[in-house]
Amino acid sequence: MGTENASLFSAIAPVYGLFYRYQLNRFRKLLAPDAMPLALDGFTSVIDIGCGTGALCAALKERGLTVSCVDRAPGMLAVARKRPGNAGIRFSLGNALTGLDFPEKAFDIAIASHVAHGLEAPDRQALYREMARLARHYVLLYDYFDNNAPLTALIERMEGGDYFRFIKDAPQELSALFPEVQMAQAGKRSGWYICRL
Question: What does DSSP assign to residue 64?
């Protein structure tokens, strides 16, 4: 993901911000104990990579986790920091593809929501490796499954990501890096990739 993508996402951050409450409610439902395939109660810390406007961060904080969040787009972080639900969350500008300024195994869980599908295969590998470096127990990806829709496909083409290869290759890519990968459908087109370290 080049500088142009960070600039694009900074530019559209105010638009993403309009959907913050919707996203927060969605993440609350996804992380609810009766919906989440991985029990979060035994964990204390999480890093959200590619946090956008911070809706997932707020939902994780509500579940009692200490949350750190990173994004490459300064505009996204500016919107995230203004949300009342994000008070007390550490937001940092950073690029997971080149390494983040956190020590190894600093968090119980590393999580990324709808980030991996926008990256080319080599960059996805860099993302997975950095998440594995940071996490003690699990790497969680919430992203697309192989059930695409025409509108989603159009939007993803406009954003210039690698959506189609991701939905085809993600299970094999992750299984090559992690000893155990579980997939759990969590919506019509998305779900959890739960990677145990």
Answer: T
